Amino acid sequence: MDELGTALRTWRDRIAPGDVGLPHLSPRRVAGLRRSELAQLAGISVEYVVRLEQGRASTPSAQVCAALARALGLSDDEQSHLFRLAGHATTPDRVPRLIPGSVHRIVEQLAGSPVLVCDAGWQMLAWNPLFAAALGDPTRQPAEDRNAMLFQFEQQPSRIRQTTDERDAFERSLVADLRATTSRYPKDPDLRALVARLLRGDRFRELWEQRAVGEHQGARKVVEHPEVGDIAVESNVLTTQGSDLRLVVDTPRDAESRSRLALVATVGLQDMAVRSD
């Protein structure tokens, strides 16, 4: 077992299931998380967790490292150590993907609103339970596909509805923001790979060739929730100093949307459909 595998096993063993909201029902040989539970929390396969801990996996992506750090509740220093062990040394040339503890605390304080944390390339790094309940659980997508740009331009399944004008403005703003990010981190290989993938699509390529540069600050949209109905929200984007992270905070635009979001917050990820026996 290599050093990365040993570290993951040690961090996993120190977490009690109840600390992360998991039931502790069946007998356990150890007090920590099972591999299957870590896999569930991080949104990766249990087979991949096994390979990582046994030193048999290829270098995990930065996205997988961020997911593992979130699931394991790592401190800032531990996150940095994990990224270094995985070959993702933090340098000025790379998009920052570490989420400081202060940002996690901010997200916890905003529990009444859907909140998403992205890096400067719009890779989804963390989110609160209400985001998953209202807009859909990002862990249903592979870690490498959890990117707001990919969701938008590859037309991945989404609960978001916008008018034609809102969608056009939203896409132009996102592309201009990504262009600004590439100028700050021109050597980041993950960022370059993202742009190359997006350029396969006609719409992104059209906007990218316009070479607009800007900062994405927010958007208006409607969340089409399958159980409670439409939730009209205003998305505001906050950029953190130093870490260059984006906090996307959705707030309801009217009383009805506020009530529906509150219902989603109460029920969470449970299935709200009524079924007959």
TrEMBL record:
Domain HTH cro/C1-type, first and last residues per copy: 28-79
Alphabetical list of InterPro entries matching this protein: Cro/C1-type_HTH, Lambda_DNA-bd_dom_sf, MLTR_LBD
Coiled coil: none
Pfam families for this protein: HTH_31, MLTR_LBD
Molecular function as annotated in GO: DNA binding
Domain of life: Bacteria
Protein name as catalogued: Helix-turn-helix domain-containing protein
Organism: Promicromonospora thailandica
